[in-house]
Design brief:
Blueprint lengths: L24 E5 L2 E4 H12 L17 H10 L6 H13 L2
Antiparallel strand pairs: 1-2
Organism: Caligus rogercresseyi
Protein name: Sulfhydryl oxidase
GO molecular function: thiol oxidase activity
Amino acid sequence: DPEHVKTIWPSSQNCPNCRDSDGDLITLNPLQKWNQNELLAYIVSVYGGDSIQRIPESNSDTSDPEEDLVDDIMSGSLNDRDIIRERLRKYCSGL
């Protein structure tokens, strides 16, 4: 649709570290590789942690998924570990 041009979000200007950098990469498009940690941190900075619902992994190979997620978020713009843990606990207690 020429009147509604589709663009990939976030743009490289908004999140320069979201693409093609070291870390846990995921390919959503054959031409684009995303850094999951940076992408998550950027999305949290835009929408806030309370707006993001955690989807449990079916094959988790980590010993503590909560701690891993906190570490991922901490690599971004959120900087208070106790607040992040409290948000996760509140969300998980409602499951």
